[in-house]
Design goal:
Chain A has about 250 residues and is of the alpha+beta class. Chain A has helices at about 35-50, 120-130, 150-160, 170, 180-190, 195, 200-210, 225, 235-250; strands at about 5-15, 20-30, 75, 75-80, 100-105, 110-115, 120. The chains are: A alpha+beta (about 250), B alpha+beta (about 650).
């Protein structure tokens, strides 16, 4: 085989939320550099299955970086060493022959480990339920072009709305804060006329819910922005704070 | 019932004589839906809260249906296999959503979108459904904008559009290359609002494994909790299935890894007819497979063909790098073959043209299975910045996967399975032949005929969920008196026993072939024999090979782990068992349809120019297959009557 590398993997294995976990060690030989990281794990799982060992559980779905299903930590970095890249889009050409890779689940109190590298991110849904929407029933919308939105505003709103809800921001934050996730939704709606009407109630309710779910406070480390595969900016957090203050101070 | 002996050894195609009725309302085409709506029975608001509605799936169809039904006051239970409803595979749709808004003043209209869709589907869709789809398309855009979907805008603040294949107007609304994501998050946010109001009860990580039919009506489902392995039962007055398409039967496709046919197939086994299963769309512009470990294929949006030009070297022996090949030695074959539509021909036409040049030996690279999609002349004309604004994220995605920048070198692309037009049979109400089982979105067969136009999947999913089901479901409930059912009914008990037994037997096989190996094996047979070009002979071979894979699956599967916790191999094995059965039905359907139409290309039936040759006299029907345990499926036919459109040979030249 043309371009291949050998790797040593150190993978977190944990049977369930209640059991304790530990690292298991695996050697991978002749890994083609053109395959993705998850395809590399697919090969490992095939080998494990054939040896009678339960394969490693990890989440993935679209494998094109948009659904936000996949995600774990590689050598201390959520989604691995490539910036703006989910693990499903990370390719083995970015690793070197002989590398040791430590693979762990996203760790944060609100993200319970389900099994191995799979965590429960259901608390994100609860934050959105607290107000991450425009209260409009189907069929009530006015003609789409009756709402004018400047090109730049639309682009900025899009930048915030591009969050895929993977949870890398939480996993990378020393406080396990969900500020980037929460603020991205608040900011998306804040930048559009449709989102203005409910803005005050929304920001208060979503921030309260974030605290209630056990996420920590933001103390401006900006690790979240650094690992975000979609490049969501911490400007969103500033927007959220400004909006929160405005909602409290009359 | 008449029995037709086909040439297949021991294969008979049994046809049901009584024709299926799609229940299109009468009257003028443009009046049908509004007249039908005004005559429907309604459920009064106080009564709506007495009804429990199950929605399976949370993509564009399931998300929009859940939100809309909950807003109306029904008690909705929504189930999805993902850890959150926001991850359904609709999220991966890139290019856009069609709507007949005519904002560009370029002559678009509901009529024109209707005609384009019927023609694009090669005259194998139901007129009344397609017209309704075009009609409600404009409401979808209004709805999504009101939700805060950040569609692309012009400097003046108005919405902007792009063109897609099979149309000569610009009617596609988009949000960069992430339109599906933004529309899905819109539907998801509406859903979350209803969850917070306790109008929707959300069930994540649950996979539907059976439909419960009591007194001939759909009254509940059985699901497996993917985290605990628990088998659960849920009753309802109606079940709305929005479980997506089955493209993963080919193993390699652009579908997400969790996209599967199981929920739909289990409904099929409970009596729901499966319609046009052989209509599978192959998308012309995907990143070619890099090797044997490829786990899925990534689409490059059709919108790229607005500015990208598809070409191969004129000579099969030309092995120069793309930049060293002068204009004169390049064959822009789509522009050459189809001057009127050029690079924007419909997907089936484009895919076959690419296959043809590759079969002639002009394909690129070691595999010879790739052609160029080149932005050089567009960048010269519009500048790199402009191209980057339009397609930046797609270019980045391409570079991430292949390691090559499309700004510097042309993309390489090859067709891949992308979408299935086939699905469970539904009538005009989007209801299957099992009363109370509604099927929406890609899971049904209804609107795209034999080929779907680009940017129409998002349109259909949302049309069904936002604007069709709220009416037709109410009409069903108001017209039927439904007795209360209990989850202790025998039907539930039997189903649960069977579901448990099946999982246990999968784990007991203890053979040597992994799920992945068997799925690859099935995929190879499907692609080689039931793929982009089919023949009677290839299909007959598939009909022999697929049962062999089925035997191997049930005798040699190597499955590790237990049934009482998260076990992805078990999930995949259970889905593969259904894919194998479905694959066989697809081959049978393709075998039966002795014509070419849209994406279904039988090599025996083509024009002298290599275009699909329909046989309207014999095959202007929807094939709807009935499952018969331990025997051949029975073919039911719904005749397609074209009252308002003349069926012609498609011509994109």
């Amino acid at each position: 085989m043309a371009n291949t590398i050998n790797l040593k993997l150190q993978v977190w294995r944990q049977e369930s939320a209640d059991s304790s976990g530990d690292f298991h060690y695996y050697s991978m030989e002749d890994v083609p550099v053109d395959i993705s990281f998850l395809e590399m794990l697919d090969i490992l799982n095939e080998n494990l299955t054939k040896s009678g060992i339960v394969p490693i559980s990890f989440d993935s779905d679209c494998r094109e970086g948009i659904c936000g299903t996949c995600g774990f930590v590689i050598n201390g970095i959520a989604h691995g060493p490539q910036s703006r890249t989910t693990v499903c889009q990370l390719h083995m050409r970015h690793f070197n022959d002989g590398d040791t890779l430590v693979i762990e689940p996203f760790r944060a109190t609100p993200f319970k480990i389900v099994k191995d590298l799979v965590v429960d991110r259901g608390s994100f849904d609860k934050i959105i339920q607290a107000g991450g929407y425009v209260s409009i029933n189907t069929g009530n919308g006015p003609d789409a072009n009756s709402i004018l939105i400047g090109k730049e505003d639309a682009e900025e709103a899009f930048d915030s709305a591009a969050c895929i809800g993977c949870g890398a921001c939480v996993a990378s934050c020393p406080n396990a804060s969900a500020a980037l996730f929460t603020s991205a939704k608040i900011s998306h709606l804040l930048q559009l006329p449709q989102g203005q009407i409910e803005q005050k109630a929304r920001v208060k309710s979503m921030v309260d819910k974030m605290d209630e779910e056990g996420f920590g406070a933001c103390s401006n480390h900006a690790e979240c922005e650094a690992v975000c595969p979609k490049g969501i900016s911490i400007k969103n957090i500033a927007n959220m704070r400004r909006s929160l203050i405005k909602s409290i101070v009359k | 019932m008449s029995i037709i002996k086909a040439a297949l050894p021991e294969k008979e195609i049994v046809t049901h004589v009584k024709k299926l009725d799609g229940k299109s309302p009468g009257g003028e085409l443009h009046d049908k839906w509004s007249k039908y709506k005004s005559e429907m029975k309604l459920v009064n608001p106080a009564n709506k809260r007495k009804y429990n509605i199950i929605v399976v799936g949370s993509g564009l169809a399931g998300g929009s249906a859940s939100a809309t039904l909950a807003e109306l006051g029904y008690n909705v239970k929504t189930f999805c296999v993902q850890d959150t409803p926001r991850r359904a595979h609709s999220i991966a749709a890139q290019g856009g959503i069609n709507a007949a808004k005519n904002y560009q003043n370029d002559g678009d209209s509901v009529q024109r979108l209707f005609i384009d869709t019927i023609k694009g589907g090669d005259y194998r869709a139901r007129e009344a459904n397609v017209y309704r789809l075009a009609e409600v398309s404009t409401n979808i855009i209004d709805q999504c904008v009101a939700q805060g979907v950040p569609f692309a805008r012009d400097y003046g603040g108005l919405l902007t559009n792009r063109s897609f294949g099979g149309a000569q107007v610009s009617r596609t609304f988009y949000a960069r290359g992430q339109t599906g994501q933004q529309l899905l998050l819109g539907a998801y946010s509406s859903m979350m609002r209803q969850v917070s109001k306790k109008q929707i009860e959300l069930f994540t990580n649950k996979e539907m494994l059976d439909l419960i039919v009591i007194d001939g009506k759909a009254r509940g489902i059985v699901v497996r909790d993917l985290k605990t392995g628990d088998i659960e039962k849920h009753t309802a007055e109606a079940v709305v299935l929005c479980s997506g398409g089955y493209g993963n039967v080919f193993f390699l496709s652009t579908n997400g890894k969790n996209s599967n046919a199981t929920a739909a197939w289990r409904c099929h086994k409970k009596g729901a007819l499966m319609a046009n299963p052989c209509f599978a769309q192959i998308h012309p512009t995907c990143i070619p497979a890099s090797g044997e470990y490829q786990s899925k294929l990534t689409l490059m949006s059709e919108s790229l063909r607005n500015d990208g030009r598809v070409w191969v070297p004129k000579s099969a022996d030309d092995k120069r790098a793309s930049e060293d090949i002068p204009e004169n030695d390049r064959d822009y074959f789509l522009e050459r073959m189809y001057p009127a539509y050029g690079n924007l021909v419909p997907r089936d036409v484009g895919s076959r043209a690419i296959k043809r040049v590759c079969d002639e030996g002009k394909g690129l690279g070691a595999t010879g299975r790739a052609v160029y999609l080149d932005f050089g002349s567009a960048m010269d004309r519009l500048g790199e910045k402009n191209i980057s604004d339009k397609y930046g994220n797609l270019f980045d995605m391409y570079e991430t996967i292949t390691g090559e920048s499309p700004y510097k070198k042309p993309m390489r692309i090859y067709p891949a399975i992308h979408y299935v037009m086939g699905g469970l049979w539904v009538d005009y109400d989007c209801m299957s032949n099992i009363p109370g089982l509604f099927v929406l979105g890609e899971a049904n067969f209804s609107d795209h005929g034999a080929n779907r136009l680009g940017a129409s999947a998002l349109m259909q999913g949302l049309a069904d969920g936002y604007f069709v089901i709220p009416y037709t479901l109410g009409n069903y409930l108001a017209n039927n008196s439904l007795d209360a059912v209990s989850d202790t009914a025998d039907e539930f008990k039997e189903s649960i026993d069977e579901v448990k037994k099946r999982n246990e037997s999968l784990l007991k096989i203890k053979g040597s072939s992994t799920v992945l190996e068997l799925h690859r094996e099935l995929g190879a047979v499907m692609w080689d024999f039931v793929g982009m070009a089919r023949t009677k002979d290839s299909l007959a071979q598939a009909l022999e090979k697929i049962p062999q894979i089925k035997d191997k699956f049930w005798s040699d599967l190597n499955l590790i782990g237990n049934d009482d916790n998260l076990n992805k191999s078990l999930e995949n094995a259970s889905r593969l068992a259904d894919f194998i059965e479905l694959g066989e039905l697809m081959a049978l359907d393709a075998y039966d349809r002795e014509e070419s139409c849209g994406a279904h290309f039988r090599e025996e039936y083509q024009t002298s120019e290599g275009e699909p040759l329909r046989n309207d006299e014999k095959y202007a029907y929807v094939s709807a297959w009935e499952y018969i345990p331990d025997s051949s499926s029975i073919l039911h036919k719904e005749d397609l009557n074209y009252e308002f459109v003349e069926m012609t040979q498609r011509n994109y030249k």
